[in-house]
Amino acid sequence: MKRMHPAYLLALSAAWLSACSTAPEAPGSRTSALPAATGAALQSCAALKDSFSYAQTRIDAATPVPAGTLKQGGSPVATHCLVKGSMHQRKGSDGRDYAIGFEMRLPEVWNGRFYYQGNGGLDGAVRPAEGALGGGPLTGALFQGFAVISSDAGHSGAQTTVFGLEPQARLDYGYQAVAKLTPMAKDLIRSAYGKGPDRSYIGGCSNGGRHAMVAASRLGDQYDGYLIGAPGYRLPNAALAQLWGAQRWSPLATPGATVKHPMNPSASIPDLGSAFTAQERQTVARAILQRCDALDGLSDGMVQATQACQAVFDVARDVPACSGVRDGSCLSPAQKTVLAQVHAGGKTTNGQTIYSAFPYDPGIAGSNWAQWKFVNAVALDPLAISTVFTAPPMPTSPLTANIDALLPAIAASNETYRESGLALMSPPGHERPDKLRALRARGARIVLYHGVSDAIFSAEDTRQWVERLDTSQGGRAADFARYFPVPGMNHCSGGPAADQFDLLSPLVRWVEEGVAPQAVTARARGAGNPGGANTELPADWAADRSRPLCAYPTVARYRGQGSTEDARNFSCQ
User: Fold this and answer.
1) What is the pLDDT of residues 338-359, one digit of tens each?
2) Catalytic residue at 18?
3) How far is residue 493 CA from its own chain's centroid?
4) Known active-site residue 454
5) At residue 3, does pLDDT exceed 90?
6) Domain coordinates of the chain in residue numbers?
């Protein structure tokens, strides 16, 4: 027992952090609950390499990791076992070697729960199975005592899209790798602890959020809680909207100006950012604040009333117009037109919508917003469209691509690619998510979050999915699914936002205790933050400013007394 004492202290520390991150329970927020998980001790780490057997699975190593080898937010992660392996090794139709690579981290003192860590981007790398949570994470699933798995989703090479030319690799990336890994991981847990997980959770942000959302539709009986962050559940449409936007910004950019290619520093791409500079984006952010900041009852540099803002903000009217040369303090008529078009989501020449609209929010000033709109739109999205999302694959040049031809191509299939890009990436039935009734009926829960100023996957797209879900459930979706917009936040983190939060602990409490989350505290990451400082915070914010993230459609409003830097003085209304 003495040997395990530090781990138990860490578990208590995680529980304390969880309690601090959750605002008081709102009246009437109790629902039915599944039986709570019970923990167990790891029986043997090294023996797993030879003792564990599962179809088409190879264990390469099982190694004890001492406490403190990993740290999260400056705090040591407890002793655990690191298992590395692969599933379904094969020779692809393109002659390349493929496998679903994975690692699992199994705590010496386990809380009885399993967490599938969905990774971002195009996958292709086995990231540390930590289950990190929040913009600058102070906690994570592993830190809290979960057994955690991470995978490469069936291909290697984080910065290549060549896997998309191989049909099975496409399918593994889309959804099949999660389906293959899930039962194997649960069996490995059973071998390690002498019992399987009592409760299972899956989560991630960006493509990881998409994995979790897809799992809710395809694997509704395998997980009890789904933590869905900034889900690119219509990733092909979002990528195509990026190209459409790049083509609109390009004529406004400085002729001949270039920036370094993010994947190849020796190469360059057009400097689309010169079409809408950082100073000009700050001008637009100030205009949004002037029109919308006080809609939530307090002028504090944050727009909490997102939907109300969309109804009153108008780019043409509210942003200063240039009467002469551009000097950063105004926008030209052409800039205003393109900005409005991009926020509308883009349309083909015959008026067909390409993707969702994007909400206006002060986070437009964030550097991550510009990275996605002006750099990744040229360097990354064309590769994904041309190799992963179209059937047949269509070579795509970002600034000259035929958007009208690409839109049907992402919905097409053929003899080689039997599922379209949309079909393999999106949750089945996302247009009307009726099938989630079964998930709801057995007591599983869904928590979603999205940065309002996400530039690649629109928070409006997530909000509309939530609305469709509510309609499909007869207006009772909040009984099992709650959505938390994060004002000011860019893609998964950053921007002028309180972006450090833990939504996993409230999800567990909802699943296992029946306490539905209504307000969850988020903190800004100012100087000295142990999870890493956010350099884009306004100078007049307290370094540890906190706000409640409010379950949609409620909005954080100041109570009228107490510090405006403290979430305890706000309520979700």
Assistant:
1) 999 999 999 999 999 999 999 9
2) no
3) 9
4) yes
5) no
6) 5-233+426-547, 237-415
